[in-house]
Amino acid sequence: MNPKSLRLILFILLMSFPFFAKAEGHFTGSPLPGITPAAAGIQVYPNPATSGTITLEYELAGPSKIRVELYNMIGRQITTLLYSERSMGLNQESLQLPSSLPDGTYLLRIESAEGISTQRLFIRSNNP
After folding, report:
1. For residues 94 and 68, is the Cβ–Cβ distance under 8 A?
2. pTM over 0.70
């Protein structure tokens, strides 16, 4: 197996596997620094998306640069949807998806100055 294939496999596993720590028989997750909890304080809608625009809501503990990238399920980056400085508190973004996306499952990688979260995004056309 070549190194590029191995990196791709590791990337896919890391992007789709939730990380937990075991403590006294109970599983707990740790919040991402920079992005507040409550499912990391992130909401993506509509999901499944049926048009070219989605809304991303997130809450920041402090001012931070935000990067939102869209990946396919084999780990290939499709595009960067947002890269900008945002203020502390609740933020809402209207993000334009590429028009050429086929129906399927995608990953949104949301990164702040101190944390990363990955959300699944389903694309479904309005055509029957």
Report:
1. no
2. no
